[in-house]
Amino acid sequence: MEAPAGGGIPHNVHNRSRRRKDRLSTSSNNPPSSKPAAVQQWRAKHQKGGGAKAAAKSRSKRTTGNDPQARRVAKARPPPNISPEDEERLSSSLLDVCTARNLIESEDGTARRKKAMRKLQRMLQDWSGSLVKGKKAKKARAKAAGAETPPILLSFGSYRLGVHTPDADVDCLVLAPRHATRDDFFGSWVRILKQKKGVEDLHPVSSAYTPVIKFVMDGVKIDLIFASISNEVWLREHAQCVKSGDGGAEDGGSEREVDVDDSLLVGLDEASVRSVNGVRVAQYLLSTMSSPRQLENYRLTLRAVKEWARVQGMYSNVLGYLGGVNWAILVCFVCIRHPDASSARLLHLFFETFANWNWPDPVMLTPEASRHVPPRNVDARPVWDPRENYRDKLHVMPIITPCYPSMNSSFNVGEPGLRRMRDEFRRAARVSREILSGTATGEDGKKGWSSLFERSGFFGQHGAYLRVDVAATTEDEFLRWFGLCEARMRLLIAGLESDEIRAYPFARFYRRDTKEEYVSSFFVALRFASGVDRDVRWGERVSEYLHVVNSFEGRTAGMDLRLELLKRADLPRFVFDGSEMLRRDGAEGGEGVRMEARATPSLATRKKAADREVSPSENISPLKRTRIA
Fold first, then answer.
1. Which of 103, 152, 268, 629 has the greatest number of CB atoms lying within 10 Å of its CB?
2. Is 247 annotated to bind ligand?
3. Per the database entry, which stretches of residues form a coiled coil (predicted)?
4. What would the DSSP string read from start to end of 602-628?
5. Which of the four CATH numbers 3.40.910.10, 3.40.50.2300, 3.40.50.300, 3.30.460.10 does domain 107-287 have?
């Protein structure tokens, strides 16, 4: 049930316990007839209504065919019937729009990336050699561990898939011999980067879920992760054939890069497995494309989907939406199901498929059985399994990685993000259908794809918005402070969400530096259930988030966090695009309250309490303040 535009919403739409059902899904390669008896019994026991009802429901589902994934999109409308000529024209037009939106890198940009990666490969070889010399007491052991074999550099992510934009970073994995450890990587290797000319904005994050070093080399943004492998024979053999800088869009695809096989998982710790699986997932997605044409269509469709998500403010793992790997798996799923479809048709089928998807049923590219069985000689590891793991059962939008150990790549998505993505999938399905049928009008007054990339009016649809300003007096302080506040922002969003209030985050930070401070702004739209008193104790809802950021040991007096609840009419002009500005004054106003809250006392001047409809003490009373020296 969708919320009425601009108004209240009934309480019952928020009842998560009533909306959620226990579901067990299988992949498109595992037909119902092959399910074990235990799985059938699990379905009968857990599906709403109990045994007899569930059995009848299961029998009725079989009329949709033997493809379990097909049943989840049975409600989807078939795409419009258009001629092959029109379909080819629309695909060509989609490419033109993507090019005009600067989504495809120039040859000069590609050459710069290749040059930076070659330089990085040479530096890694020198670093590995220096480690051997520095460990003379362990020389024999180091040699046996493959000390004479240099590390190899492999790309993954958007660069490996060939869909990166000109300003995108390059995700790289260092596969190193055993004598190079993660401590060395975040120790001596970081020191080398600090001293290297051309390296800027160096940020090692050793405590991250997947430890990473972020930096810029010769103008190219790089995210570098690490794994030390025990298979020295494999490493030595492949080190000879790796071409530095190969892979990505510049060679028409990354198929020539070294494939990381299952044997490399032997002996790896959890962090290394996560690091290696970034490459394994990318190579798996590429391997599913049966022809160069299908690969070309996949890339163009993925470029368009990612740009659409950015425009709508829904491209961010950290903020409760989807990131690059999530979108890549979803588009791959549609391409596998429609191998002969053009990019124009694939784009429409993508939106139609997931506008009608029965979440939390998972999206899976591989058979269920293969996700649970470890490769030979590889230790068994936890995999995503809602039958065995209660936390997995709570995931609202599971998108499962295709390589062992399979994980939910979208575990960060919560109810607010899923709700908004559903709304936008439906809108995009309607717009793309109009484009295919020739009834859509774009920004330029002509029928075309430009209408798909128009923002849906986020800042004109709701009555109240929470503005979050992250600020600091120096750039270095700002980067550290912003990283913490952004990483914990999901706590804030979850605190705002309740049976009475719906939260709609917009996944974009607006950088608005001044002479006094560096500042970035983030917005969450709010809708209230019918009859709910909007003069609520907001401090209690944001207290957990504020407690976490207040506890940051590296915080200084120059770091500030400001929260302000605004009516639609009070939103700053910089958040509106042209079409939203036209709708701003004419839209029905909300009845949101206005308040301001801070994580701790700030250097910035406070507004007078008389300007607020909620007093400062009422907002902040649940929060234990931290004194800043």
1. 152
2. no
3. none
4. -SSPPPPGGG-SS-HHHHHTTS-----
5. 3.30.460.10
